[in-house]
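--- STAGE predict ---
source: upstream dedup step, 1 unique chain passed
mode: sequence only
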Amino acid sequence: MPQEPRQTDFQLVRVKSTWCRIKKGEALSNCEDEITLSEAKIGECVSKSGISWTIEAPIYFCYKVVETYNILDPSNTTLLWGHITDPQQLELATSSKRRLRRFIVIDEVVDEIYGSKVREYFEENNVQHKILALPTTEETKSMDLVLNILQEVQSFSIDRRTEPIIAIGGGVCLDIVGLAASLYRRRTPYIRVPTTLLSYVDASVGAKNGVNFLQCKNKLGGYTPPVASFLDRSFIQSIPRRHISNGLGEILKMALMKHRGLFDLLKTQGKYLLDTKFQSYSGSADHGDAALQTTRIAIETMLEELAPNLWEDDLDRLVDFGHVISPELEMRVLPSLMHGEAVNVDMAFMTYVAQARGLITAEEKEQIIQCMRGLELPVWHGGCTWPLIKRALMERLKHSGGKLRMPLPTGLGTAEIFNDTSEETLARAYKLWVRDCKTVLAEEPAAL
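--- STAGE serialize ---
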């Protein structure tokens, strides 16, 4: 009779400097030394063919997302110490006589506006620093730029535990620097300082980083969160109006997926937010602090969705709304659409899909499209052809475990994920979408 495989589960315990395994539930005998129990486990299975080991090793990350203001004021120490969470480590760091060192990567456009303030900040705080200004755009978002950063990091010679790399710029800059930091010495801490509305509410709050590869968006990348993201809305006042709309696309995504109050806020305060560039002003009682409310709700709802699923083990993600067609579209028409604009074109089409499926009413669909227009976002683009949509959906199936996993609104501020949307429904929605939303500024035919 064949012998049954024998399974034994082990815990891992460190005694002094040495890790050893003990059977699960077994106590260490006659041990007077201090011991450390790991959450990792090793399972051993002995069978006729040999031994196999199964390792369970939970990966723990802690990172901070911090609202601040006037982060480049030399008296504001957030950039120096704000990433440290442990009080004892903070005390050690602030009392150390060793001179601080920081490596900073800044988008070259941001450098033109804020570069002198960044340099003054670190000089005033007696920080030895290197500032690398780079063109960080979707066109330059590549491994070449990552390697450029890594060469400069190596020359500067940072301590990979106590000297976080700082990224100051939009989402592309934060993505590139995040990937570079994750590769250097296998993981070097880094800090994100977003300077656009889009990166403020999106790229800065999650764990993902990456670069484009072979004309595919974010084809290379990983999941390594920053030690901290420092959010300063004062940067947003220096970006063009179109960039504000671009960021509003990602905020609207969260509103449509899970927060009716945020949707209503965007409907009623959208123009005010565009006009004031998300700055808070005293005496604006009629608006409350619309900028603060909007950004906080957007970030809180985003974190609710991201935190339980940082590594995207679960591919059913509401935050993928607007990201089913848009990766293909954005790279296809680069640079005519910004990221949030491409996302909004995707969301506009999917809104028609939702109505075609009977998930939302015609009135709700119209409210959504009018809100988009009020936020000065495109609701259609000539590059979003029926062949492109079909190609994007095939890519979606390929990389999402053979399922579409299509987030669709089921009301204003509610949504579900669907895998059973037929091609006939998609085609019908596409025709209606083109009929209603196509503009005379078509760049190419949008025929079905």
